[in-house]
What we know:
- By secondary structure, the protein is α+β, with helices and mostly antiparallel strands.
- It has 7 helices and 14 strands.
- It has helices at 25-36, 99-111, 152-159, 187-197, 258-274, 299-305, 311-322; strands at 8-13, 39-44, 57-61, 79-81, 88-91, 143-146, 164-169, 179-182, 205-209, 218-224, 227-234, 251-254, 278-284, 287-292.
- Strands 4-3-2-1-5 form a 5-stranded mixed sheet. A 5-stranded antiparallel sheet has the order 12-11-10-13-14. It has a 4-stranded antiparallel sheet with strand order 6-9-7-8, covered by helices on one side.
- β1, α1 and β2 form a beta-alpha-beta unit.
- α1 packs across α7 (311-322).
Amino acid sequence: MASMKSIRMLWITDPWPTLSLFNDTTLRLIQEATTMGIQTFWSASDLVLNTQSKGKLNVFPCQTPLTSSNPPNFSTGSIEMEPSAFHLIHYRVDPPVDFNYISLVDAILERDNQARIVSPPNALKHQSEKLPPPELSQYSPRLQAIYTEKEVGSAYAKFKDDAIAVIKPLNEAQSKGVKKLTLPASGEAFESLLRSETANFTMPIVIEEYLPQVDQGEVRIWFACGEVVAALKKFPKTGDFRVLIDEGSRVEAYSLSESEAEVAQAVGAVLQKQGVLLAAIDFIGGKISDYNITSPGLLVQLEEVHGGKNFARTILERLLRHLE
């Protein structure tokens, strides 16, 4: 592999004003990359394609970590570079997977099809963080994506014996719009419920079995290059069944059990097959509750609850080994 100082990484985020500057995962990785001497560059989804030269990207070199007191130099600080000039490009946004994400990554690849994207678009075009890949169905809860009226019948067959279920908007993040609902007994009333929750089938959702083990917490496992980095446990907000980090949900360090480690190994193999280098997969009662492959978050909190361990460096070292 080339020397550390010759490695170039580009990190693309949401627009700068929307970032949480104190605990953003990408900014933490940028901080560690600059400390390691990696040539580090940043851009945002609203800036990266704004170039005068065909086939190039608009990026900002990071000589020092980006912080609230050291923001990007928007007036004169950007330069234009070809996508393939970077050894790796990571684009991390919220919501984790939607058409805006895919279209921007496709636009980068159109400018340079040799660009190396950390989360390749082929792994995303028919997937959402709410929908684990079919290869992991044995570790997934019963669920059904609802796009049109056509899916109502199969959803009713899956859930007609359930008293309650969870509804998740397909293209939202951070538990936005997630509900626990009492299910009606009749197929007609069930369709009426789904019609209401999807705004007459204009907004796709996932209906999923309720996992009561959420009361004991949701486990987040960080993966880099298909290998486990570390885990933490997130607890529902008081008086709610949802984990809402921004509203006070508690987190703590967590060590995987032997059975959980076996599941994590299976998940890691699928991530490697998909070509996904960074991921944060959530589990409730041993079943996958979220499959975050474009927006793995809580890295700052992960390091804090594990006593300040430098997991950012672990992740970057694995990414660098991947380049060998």
